[in-house]
Amino acid sequence: MSDDVIKTEGLTKIFNKHLAAVDHVNFEVRNGEIFGFLGPNGAGKTTTINMLITILRPTAGKATVLGRDIVKEDSEVRSVIGVVPQEYTADEDLTGLENIFLCADMYGIPRKVAKERAEELLKLVELTDFGNKKVQTYSGGMRRRLELACGLINRPKVLFLDEPTLGLDVQTRTATWSYIRRLKQEYGMTLFMTTHYLEEADALCDRVAIIDHGKIVVIGSPEELKRSLGGDVITLGIKEDADVSEIIRGAKHVKDVKKENGAYRIKAEFGEITAPSIIEVLRQKGYTVTRLSLTEPTLNEVYLEYTGKSLRDSEESRENVMIQRMTVRRARQ
Amino acid sequence: MTEVSSYSPSRLRGLWALTNRELKKWYKAPLIFFLSIIQPIIWMGLLGKAMNLSALVPANIPGLDVGAVMKASLGTSDYFSFMAVGMIGMTALFTTMFSGMSVVWDRRLGFLNKVLSTPVSRGVIIFSKVLSATLRSMFQAGIIIVIAFAFGLQFGAGFSLLNLLGVFGILFLLCVGLSSAFIAITIRSTRMETPMAVMNLISLPMMFASNAMVPSKLMPDWLQPVVHVNPLSYANDAVRQLLIFDAIDYTQLAMDFAYVGIFAVIVASIGIILSWRFLRK
């Protein structure tokens, strides 16, 4: 018996025989943690989650959820997990409560139990007053909360959240985060979430896996990952048209220099001391520093470091783009 | 290991919950409900009353008994009654076609994925679509019979309530078959356009290549074989025998039930097998 709630070994999904959406992915999610899958659109986050929630069959590799194989024991897996999909799936023509009961019926939960749970869940997501209102009248944030309530109706041990705050405004997003934190703290639930918001992963996740082009690039806690960058990042530009990387590299505490788009990205320890000394070194060689910024590492830097680019929007299938647009549009209502 | 959820999903519960979800969209929306009742009235008015074949035969030709002529070719002396039954089949065809659309729609909205991630069985997901379309069509069929009666439908001499039960029996089989067929066609499609194109292609030809408007024996030889494989023809025939014909040909009626029944079983099985195969990509 291990402490791992989710475990994957070489999990792979190949679409159309050559497009590896998820490519030999290995990771473990420990009991009671919030595990984040971070990556740009099309990196393979949703594909991974869909395999784990058994609606997509892996091409190769294996994975277990709570010790149950996602292919051989798929219906056992389905009964112990909760899923909060990226889209708003609640039926707009039904009321919030009717939607929750519909979910309860899927799990075979007796109506009496379902009623008690629904009441509790509506309270948790602060929708008690709206339970009997049609979902059409809900705002984006309310819909998201209703999805959360539906995903919790079977008291899952593991909750899968696919882009839980896609298209929500900053306030609603922060509120959603607090619900997610409560699930972990009060219910001891294990959460697996995907996101392409760095600050979301930073604020919520105990551990993060950065995924790009279907491969996991790095796994660790946000702090570990930031620390692994080895200090602060200084970005500077000079007036002259010359490559001064070597000069900068000679300065004290400087660990690495990269020239990107005409600016230098310098990794250094003790940024606030190192920055002035770099300016001084450059001045002595006759160069003029025109701009400089100092940042302590955020997940954004981690991300840049490991994927070599900012979170980008890559090409996606027509269907996904359509679904995302629809979700965002409805979130704005 | 961690304990499993103590409740196990029951097929029947899941089936009814999903079916009821579809039905609620209809009976809880007054406008849609109203339109689905109005629709058969319009069809009956336009096709049943306006296209009055009885009027083609001049009544003043001496020695010609219009009623007898009509009865010889239609089986009943009243074309409106003949046509009204055709309307029942047509409504069943049009209503069940939308079951295919709703699978695509659910896929688009992500609802399908959500249901797929619950323990409810895949066959149940598909069958709930079939069942809801079937129940809707049967309700509409009931409305048509009532309205047609009000408009002057003449029941056959041997008509009894038991016959009515038979009518709904054959309609149930027909609708299960038809909606399974439309779902099987559209189960893999992710775009709304595909089922729409399929429906546009199939619906009207399927109706005209049946005995809904005109008895098959009046049709050209090349068309008759098509009419004879069309399950709609068998259902129409059964309903006519049960509702409006004076004498029931029991051999033919048994044939009708057998043909439509086999059609329903085969197509529904195909639909459910496809759902196992294709609902999981």
Polypeptide structure, described:
The complex is a heterodimer of chains A (333) and B (281). By secondary structure, chain A is an alpha/beta fold. Chain A folds into two domains: 4-220, P-loop containing nucleotide triphosphate hydrolases (Rossmann fold), CATH 3.40.50.300; 230-296, Alpha-Beta Plaits (2-Layer Sandwich), CATH 3.30.70.100. Chain A has twelve helices and 14 strands. Chain A has helices at residues 45-52, 74-80, 96-106, 111-124, 140-151, 170-187, 198-204, 222-228, 245-249, 271-284, 299-307, 318-332; strands spanning 4-15, 19-30, 34-38, 60-65, 68-69, 81-84, 158-162, 190-195, 207-212, 215-220, 232-238, 254-260, 263-268, 289-295. In chain A, strands 6-7-8-3-9-10 form a six-stranded mixed beta sheet, sandwiched between helices. A four-stranded antiparallel beta sheet of chain A has the order 2-1-4-5, with helices on one face. The longest helix of chain A is centred in the middle third of the chain and has 18 residues, at 170-187. Chain A is elongated and about 80 Å long. The termini of chain A are far apart. The longest helix of chain B has 31 residues, at 79-109. Chain B contains eleven helices and no strands. Chain B has one domain (12-278). In chain B, helix 6 (122-151) crosses helix 7 and helix 7 packs antiparallel against helix 10 (231-243). Chain B is elongated. Chain B is an all-alpha fold. Chains A and B meet through helix 2, helix 3 and helix 12 of A and helix 1 and helix 5 of B.
Shape of chain B: elongated
Question: Helix proportion of residues of chain A, in percent?
Answer: 25-40%
Task: Decide which structural class fits the backbone of chain A.
Answer: alpha/beta
Hey, roughly how much beta strand do the residues of chain A contain? 25-35%
- Biggest pleated-sheet summary of chain A: 6 strands, mixed
Low-confidence stretches of chain B: none
Q: Kindly provide the name of the CATH class of the largest domain in chain A.
A: Alpha Beta
Q: What's the arrangement of strands in the largest beta sheet of chain A?
A: 6-7-8-3-9-10
The termini of chain B sit apart by: 29 Å
Oligomer: heterodimer
Q: What is the CATH superfamily classification of the largest domain in chain A? A: P-loop containing nucleotide triphosphate hydrolases
How many helices of chain B? The count is 11
Compressed to H and E, one letter per element, the order of chain B equals HHHHHHHHHHH
Kindly give the count of domains of chain B: 1
Q: Write the element-wise H/E pattern of chain A from the N-terminal end onward.
A: EEEHEEHEHHHEHEHEEHEHEEHEHH
Q: How many distinct beta strands of chain A? A: 14
